[in-house]
Specification:
Helix content: 10-25%
Shape: globular
Radius of gyration: 15 Å
Largest sheet: 6 strands, antiparallel
Number of strands: 6
């Protein structure tokens, strides 16, 4: 299955990675280190959230207009700043996508909550060496 990367999907979704079954988006929900992002606080950072979707069954009640439905317990704020470079945003979202892609066949029979909780701790620093390798 081919993986597609879409940039600037909308004003709050800077990046989306998807195939025929799974979609993972970066989403800027205005979250900061301690709750809502406060741009007046120099210590606060605008952080990105990832949202995970699965292709819906046609005609089901929980399917969105675009054919995707949210995966339960698969939307988490991360330590990735909203102003992170495009390269690191792409690498980190592809990583999240690959982690969910390995287990999405188990959904909804098994909870994916622990995976999301683990992935919520990622930061841009986890991907800086990969970005440098790609730039060389």
């Amino acid at each position: 299955m081919a993986v597609t990367i879409l940039r600037d999907v909308d004003v709050d979704t800077p990046l989306s990675v998807r195939d025929d079954i799974l979609r993972v988006d970066w989403y800027n929900a205005g979250e900061g280190i301690c709750g809502d992002y406060n741009p007046e606080n120099p210590q606060d950072v605008n952080l990105l959230r990832f949202d995970v979707y699965i292709a819906g069954d046609a005609g089901t009640e929980d399917e969105s207009d675009d054919g995707w439905r949210e995966v339960e317990d698969a939307s988490y704020c991360t330590n990735i700043p909203a102003n992170t470079t495009q390269e690191i945003l792409e690498e980190s979202l592809k990583y999240i996508f690959s982690e969910y892609r390995e287990v999405i066949d188990q959904y909804p029979y098994n909870s994916l909550k622990r995976l999301g909780e683990r992935l919520s701790w990622i930061s841009d620093l986890d991907f800086e060496s990969e970005a440098r390798k790609g730039a060389s």
